[in-house]
Amino acid sequence: MTKSKALIPFLFLIGIVIISLFPFNIPNAPVVYPGISFADTAWMLTSTGLVLIMTPGLAFFYGGMVSKKNVLSTMLQSFISMAVITILWIVFGFSLSFGESFGGIIGDPSSFFMMHGVIDGAPWKLAPTIPLLLFAFYQLKFAIIAPALITGAFAERIKFTSYVLFIVLFCIFIYSPLAHATWHPDGILAKLGVLDFAGGTVVHMSAGWAALAGAIFLKGRKSTEHSPARITYVMLGTGLLWFGWFGFNAGSAFGANNLAATALATTTSASAAAAFTWIMFDAIRGKKPSAMGTCIGAVVGLVAITPAAGFVSIPHSLTIGIVSSIISNLMVEWRTRTSIDDTLDVFPCHGVGGIVGMLLTGVFAHGNVNPLVVNNGLLFGETKLFLVHFFAMIAVSIFSFGGTYLLLMLTNFISPLRVSEKEELEGLDWSQHGEKL
Question: Staple partner for 378: which of 26, 53, 321, 386, CB 3.0–4.6 Å?
Answer without folding.
Answer: 386
